[in-house]
């Protein structure tokens, strides 16, 4: 396995449509291995092949204890709508609110070339929608609700530091 470079939002490849995977070759398995390692190393919930510069319809998702390595994933059914904050390894440092379906049914091919169907709700449904959008050249910031505040990682760090400082002050007073 090897870490691959994650492309960021100024890279035009992220806006291109990925091509279907016709056959599960050793090269595709290697790609999935590398994507998995790259996702884990960056604490991501999911990664699409295009984010490491490969225009193939392949995604990896780590959700709770479950790992998904999928080819040609497609949303075949969806229901409801939920707004929630999302981030992306290709748009580092910030989070924005996006409306997504509450539940989705995803059809895909697994590494054995078998067709599988996955039903997902809430956060996992959101991750599937986000990753499948990548395969169509869409970044979440293009769908985000710009009337909602943008949350920056630096804000979170500052909030955490302020909290830690407050705790330190308390301790010093004792
Ligand atoms: Zn992303």
Task: Report on this structure.
The termini are far apart. The chain has a single domain, classed as Peptide Deformylase, CATH 3.90.45. The mean pLDDT is 94. The strands form 2 sheets. A 5-stranded antiparallel sheet has the order 1-2-3-6-7. A 3-stranded antiparallel sheet has the order 4-5-8. The chain has 174 residues and is an alpha+beta fold. Bound molecules: zinc ion.
Helicity level: 25-40%
Going across the biggest sheet, name each strand in turn.
1-2-3-6-7
Helix and strand element order: HEEEEEEEHEH
Chemical compounds bound to the protein: zinc ion
Characterize the overall form. globular
Percentage beta strand:
25-35%
What is the CATH topology descriptor? Answer: Peptide Deformylase
Number of domains: 1
In total, how many beta strands? 8
Main sheet?
A: 5 strands, antiparallel
State the CATH class.
Alpha Beta
Tell me what the CATH architecture is: Alpha-Beta Complex
Question: Rounded to an integer, what's the Rg over CA atoms?
Answer: 18 Å
Structural class: alpha+beta
Task: Provide a short characterization of the protein structure.
This protein is α+β, with helices and mostly antiparallel strands and 174 residues long. Helices cover 29% and strands 32% of the residues.
List keywords for this structure.
174 residues; alpha+beta; Peptide Deformylase; 3 helices; 8 strands; 29% helix; 32% strand; globular; binds zinc ion
Itemize the secondary structure elements and their pairings:
Layout: H1 26-41, E1 46-48, E2 58-63, E3 66-79, E4 82-88, E5 91-100, E6 103-109, E7 115-121, H2 122-135, E8 151-152, H3 153-173
Antiparallel strand pairs: 1-2, 2-3, 3-6, 4-5, 5-8, 6-7
């Amino acid at each position: 396995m090897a870490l691959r470079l994650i492309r960021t939002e100024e890279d035009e490849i992220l806006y291109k449509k990925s091509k279907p995977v016709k056959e599960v070759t050793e090269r595709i398995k290697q790609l999935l291995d590398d994507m998995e390692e790259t996702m884990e190393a960056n604490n991501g919930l999911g990664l699409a092949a295009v984010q490491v510069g490969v225009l193939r319809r392949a995604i990896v998702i780590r959700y709770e204890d479950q790992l998904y390595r999928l080819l040609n994933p497609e949303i075949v059914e969806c229901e409801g709508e939920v707004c929630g904050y999302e981030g992306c390894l290709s748009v580092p440092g910030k989070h924005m609110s996006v409306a997504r379906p509450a539940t989705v049914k995803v059809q895909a091919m697994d590494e054995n070339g078998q067709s599988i169907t996955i039903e997902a709700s809430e956060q996992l449904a959101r991750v599937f929608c986000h990753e499948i959008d990548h395969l169509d050249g869409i970044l979440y910031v293009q769908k985000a609700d710009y009337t909602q505040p943008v949350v920056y990682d630096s804000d979170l760090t500052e909030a955490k530091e302020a909290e830690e400082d407050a705790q330190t002050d308390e301790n010093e007073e004792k």
